[in-house]
Amino acid sequence: MRLILLVMTMLCWTTAARAEPIKPAEILQAAVVNVIRPEVLRFDATSRGLSSAMKALCASPSPNGKAIADAQFGLVVAAYGQIAYLRLGPMMEDNRADRLLFWPDRRGIGLKQVQAILSNQDNSVTSLAGLRSKSVAVQGLGALDYVLSGTDADTLTRPQGEFRCAYGAAIADNIADIAGALVAGWFAPDGIADHLMMPQPTNVDYRSDTEALEALVGLVSHGLEAMRDQQLNPFLAAADAPAKPKLAPFWRSGQTMTLLSGSIMSMRQLIGESRVATAVAEKDKGLADSIDFEFRNALRALGLVTLPVEQAVADQKQAAALSYLALVTDSLHGMVGEQLSAALGLSVGFSALDGD
Amino acid sequence: MWQRRAFLKAAGAGFAASLLPRRAVALERSELVFASAVQTARGGYGAVLLGEAGELIAEIALPDRGHDITISPQAGRGVVFARQPGTFAVVFDPAGTVAPVTLTSIAGRHFFGHGLFSPDGTLLYATENDFDAAQGVVGIYDATGGYRRIGEFPTYGTGPHEMLLMPDGVTLVVANGGIETHPDFGRAELNLDSMDPSVVFIDRRDGALVGQLRLDGGLHQLSIRHMAIDAQSRVWFGCQYKGAAADAPQLVGYATQDGAIVLVDLPAETLAELRNYVGSVAASADGTTIAVSSPEGNLLVAIDAGAGRPSLTQTLRSGCGLAADGAGFVATSGLGEMIGIAGASRAPRQFDFQFDNHMLRV
User: Fold this and answer.
1) Scanning every residue of chain B, which has its alpha carbon at the shortest distance from the alpha carbon of A136?
2) Residue B321 belongs to a domain
3) pLDDT tens for residues B234-252?
4) A228 and A325 in a common domain
C-alpha cells in the first residue's frame, strides 16, 4: 500500500512538474547555452585544427598530410553546417556569412576568381591580411574546397604545390579568424546572446520575449528555407531538367551530405534542446513530436545517401532519398515557419521578416 | 465610381465566388476603397477588396502569395502581382463583371510584386527580373489587347522593386533595390557584398534613363525598395539595410527629379525601432505627411514631409500595409488588424485573414 501511495505521489509530482509551462527565458537560455554557443565553439576549434593541418601540409607536402587536411576540412564543413543558419548577430557583420561561404555562386564568380588566383600565382592572397582585402568569393570554404579537391589539387602533395598550399593555408587562417569573431560575438557581455536570453525594452535588437522567440524560430524557419532553395533543390532533377550535381555545395570534396546533415542535426537540436515547440497550447502539443519525427526522417534520408553527390543523383535509390529529403525539408519549413509560429503567437512567417 | 452592384452578376471562377449572400448587402451599400493581398484563414492566398469601413466586398483567389495591387479606373481593371519571385499576375475587374485573367511572366523573367497602369489605362507596366542577366526590366503589357506583353525596357539596375508614376504622367520612378536574386535559389540574396541600389527616373515613352541617384557614404548595402510621392513631387523612399544590424543607418529619404537624394535624420530611438527595415511607404491624401512601416520593429512612423521630422510613432504588431485615409493613414498588419493613424478617425478592426505588405487606396 505504501509503495502504491509512493508511486502515486511520484506520478502526481511528475505530472505537476510537466504541467508547469516552460518560460521563454528558459527556452532562450537553453538555445544559446546548450546549442548555439557549443556549436560556435566547435566550429572555432575545428577551424583552428584545419589551419594547423594546412600549415603542416605546406611545410612538408605529402599524401598523408593532404589526407589529414582533407579529413579536417570535412570536420569543418560539418561544424559549419551546424552554424551556417545562425544568420544573426556576428554572422551578419563584416560580410562574414559570405566570406565563410559565398553560395550560391550562380555565375561561377568564385570559381573563376579562384582559378585566376591559382593560375596567376597572385602572392597577395597568401597572407591573411592580403586575402581579406580580396573578393568574398575567394576567402572561404568554397575556395578551399577547390584548392583541396579541384583540378590539380594533387600538387598539394608535392613541393610544386607551394603556392596553392599557401593560398589554402591563408583561407584556413581566414576561416579560423572569422570563427574566432563568431565566438567573440556570441560570448560578448551585453551582446547578442545576453540580448536574446534577457530581452529588454532598452535593447536595440531584442526588446521582448516575443521578439527573441521570433528570432529563434526564424533561425530554423529561414535555415530550412535556405537549405531547400540554395543547397538542395538547385542540384536535384526536376520534371523538366536533369540533376545538376555541380550545383551542390562541396561536390568536389564529397562533403555535400556532411553540410546538410550538420544543418539538419543542429536545427533539430535547437528546437529540441530549447523545448520551444512545447511552449504551446494543449491542442498544439503534438507539434513538437511531429517536428522531431520529420527531422528524423530527414536524417534517415541523408543516411541513405552514401555516394558522392555526382553518383548519388544517378543512383535510383539515393536520388529518391534526396528527393524525399527535399520534400521533408519543405514540410519542416511549413511546420516551423507557419504552424509552430502560429501556435506560439509569433509572426515569423508572414509580413515580417520576408525581405519584401 | 466602381459599380458595386455589378458584383452580384459576377461569375468569374475564384472571384466573387466567395461573395456570400450577407456580403451582397455590404456590396450594395459599399464603395470599393481598399485592396490588399492577403493570406486567408485557411492558409491560402488571395486579395481582398474592402469598403470604407473595412467591410469585405470581394475576394480574389490567387495561386500563390501576392504582393501589391494596382487599379485603373480608365482600364476598368485591377492587377495583383505575385510576390517575388512569382510568375503570375491576376487581372481582375473591380466591378466583378468579368472573370479574372491570370498572366504569366515570359521565359527568363519573373515579377517583383509591383506595377502600375498608364494614366489612360491602355498600358500596364510591371517591375520584372531578367534573372539570367541579373538586370531589372519594366515589362510593358497592352491593357487593350488581352494584356499581351509588347515590350520591356531596363531599370538600369538590379532587383527593382516598387515603381511609381510621377505627376507629369510620363516619368516612371523605380527603386532598384540592388539585390540579385535568381529563381533557381528561391529568395536567396546573391550579391550582398556588391549591392548597388539606386533610384531611377525613366521616360515611359521610350524607356530612356532620365536620371539615376545613388546614396553615397558607404551605403551600398542600403536597399531602396518602397516609395511615395509628396505634395512637392519629391519621391520619398524607405530602405532595408543588409549590413550589420548595429550599423543602424538612416532608412528614409527623398529623391527629386532634379537630382537630389537625401536621407532624413530620424531620431535614434525611432531608427532603432525600425530595425533596419522599412516595409512600406505612403503619402497622405494632401501629400504633406509620409508614413513608413516596419513589420520587423512593429512600428509605424508618420513624418512631416516639410520638416522631415516624425509627427507620430505608433506600434502595430507585424504592421506593414499603409494607405492614405482621411487626414492620415490606414495601417494593416500580418496579424489581420486594420487601424487608423496620424489623423485618420477609424475604429480598429480585426479580420480573420492576414494582410500582406501593401494596402492600396483606390
Assistant:
1) B193
2) yes
3) 999 999 999 988 899 999 9
4) yes
